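hey can u check if this looks right to u? its 380 residues, i copy pasted from the old doc so theres a chance i mangled smth
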Amino acid sequence: MNELRLRLSGHVEGHFAASGSHLSSGYFTLNPAFFVKCVLADGRPADYCVRQEKEMYQAVTFSAPDCRTLTVEYEGVLDGTTGRYPYVKEKTSDRCYILRSETLYYPVFALPDSTEYWQNLLSPQEENRFQVTVEVLGGRRSCTNLQEISNGVYEGHNPTIAVGDYRLEKCPFGTIAYFSMELDKLAEIRRTAAYTNDFMNRYKTAEIRNYQIVEIPAGLGSFVLPGTLFLAGELDTRQMIHEFIHTNWNPRCSGTVQRSRFFDEGVTEYFTAKVLACYGLQDVKASRALWEAQYRSAIEAHPEWKVPIADYGARELGDLSYSYGPLALFALEDAVGETEMKRIMSELLERYQQEDVDFQKLAALFPAGATPIFQNYFYA
């Protein structure tokens, strides 16, 4: 287990200690905004070298043969320019900010975007588990996806921490941590969670329980981790339904199949349209027109992206699954009928909770008459 101690204000101070097989890599990566104060191997100073990378991270190599525990102390200020991806705009000078894996705010023993990096995030092992201690200065509160085991001490995988002037509201599904939401927005979240949960139980029995929603600043982008929805302030009802569906109703997958984003984003968009139509918020025809326009715009700008869904993972084109994925599923529904499609989607969710699904396994759920449609979207 990794140990991470954080002291947070407009400045981040980190104390990180790790043990395990990943120390044999001889390097770690970290946000370039942080200054590495020292590297210790089993409590003794270790030789290390820092180099800046073009991809917005620093790689720190260290010499520590036979080391059992590596300790790194670092500090720095995030100014919104050093995130691993363009959407990572965190500034520790803001009254509310978030630290997440894309921020690279703790040492990672893998190169960002490598297979190992994504495997550690998507299928974490014990050596990827964290115990995190958080001290927040300035009268603010921290919220995290991890489980609290004692006051200010948390455990779990993929530690993600929001800092702000948070207030807490208890709800039937869990907790909302917010700093700027009005009462009508809080009520809308509770209603949306309830009717999304009711509808999705037609496909797989599950409940949104012990769940927390953490408001984060508009513009940072909403995302879901097990047990937690980090909700950007500008989120609309459609997006909220989408995120709630992610909580319990995606089949399991891994590797390049996961990177295709079809089985999370494509499937979720399909169900989002179903929920919207059921409650009279938007008919399916309008959803399909929206996806068609999004997909057409992407392909006109990048004709080389016109590849089958099964190739999205290898080509790193998973963003297309937000539009072309649900279009494929509704084309299949047109072919087999709504009743049969409901049975197939229910079986997809029930069967592949503990076992990885792939495109061949998905195809096997459909009757032979749907094969030409499936081939056209997924393989042609």
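The chain is about 30% helix and 25% strand.
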